[in-house]
């Protein structure tokens, strides 16, 4: 994750909505893929003038200058900070409100992917929804940095953020059975139980399942691995997948998972897998290893941006150099965390069989990577390239 600069020169961060120095509103510009100060369109020369809508803004980056509208979930719900491009269809006439090209229902590209949100009448659910959307935006940022497609694939990617349904008190005759929401992926839809956005509950589950880490972003990294198995591996790279991860048909997934939950992981799991859960079945091994790959990319992207002595080429021929850099950063930050009593940033020991699996994923990502999409507005500079560093 990179940091950015406000027009006043102050450093701004990925989740910001206001500059703490000049007080300007801040947002993510989908035209140039950067955090930016939002300049009111009516205050800019040639960007709207007297005919500009008060809901229109201009990207504060001089080499973009796209006219923007806030995502509905930013302007109304206060759980987003993205802005989508809105360009005049023709030169406005006095008294006209400029027509715009915008998302179908006023949502940014990230929020459009969410099909189900929690019941906001329940106390605490709005905060949980906001945390889920923030984690999803970080996921999409990492996918964009890698050039991995997530729109236009089949099945279409979508997200449901749901809670367990409890039978109403004293109304058991009218209610059906309690609905348990399982975090997982099926046919392009990623479902997250919103209890994962409760830090206390998630920590209890982390201890219960003997996990070194359990985070919201970790769930997104894991479940998107299942999505990319379905879109990039199934029917295309299955022979190579079986060579790296094992046969996903023998035993069948349901049988393998039943055995895992009844008997626990293999005694020697640490010699071949990145986690206990990865040993349950090749599909879970792929998802856990894919999550590790995204963890590496995210951490190294941040480290490379903030520490000029660190360089990581995400397009390198082999993934091994990324693993080495990731572990070097991990040693440093782990010691920082231990100094103040926090859990390790990099708890994994990446053994050789896991490196081989990462090589498969690295190759898969490089083949699937697409050039950046053209900016949505007329601009002298297109959206930045996915990261390629010396």
Write the layout of secondary structure elements.
Blueprint (H helix, E strand, L loop, with lengths): L3 E2 L5 E2 L13 E4 L4 E7 L15 E4 L7 E4 L1 H4 L6 E4 L23 H4 L1 E3 L8 H22 L11 E5 L21 E3 L2 E5 L5 H10 L7 H18 L4 H8 L7 H11 L18 H25 L13 H20 L12 H17 L22
Parallel strand pairs: 3-7, 8-9, 9-11
Antiparallel strand pairs: 1-2, 3-4, 4-5, 5-6, 6-7, 10-11
Descriptive terms for the model:
390 residues, alpha/beta, 2 domains, five-stranded mixed barrel, four-stranded mixed beta sheet, 11 strands, globular, disordered C terminus
Q: Could you explain the architecture of this structure?
A:
The chain has 390 residues and is an alpha/beta fold. The chain has two domains: 4-110, no CATH class; 113-368, no CATH class. Helix content is 36%, strand content 11%. The chain has ten helices and eleven strands. It has helices at residues 72-75, 109-112, 125-146, 199-208, 216-233, 238-245, 253-263, 282-306, 320-339, 352-368, and strands at 4-5, 11-12, 26-29, 34-40, 56-59, 67-70, 82-85, 114-116, 158-162, 184-186, 189-193. A five-stranded mixed barrel has the order 3-4-5-6-7. It has a four-stranded mixed β-sheet with strand order 8-9-11-10. Helix 8 packs across helix 9 (320-339) and helix 8 (282-306) packs across helix 10. The longest helix has 25 residues, at 282-306.
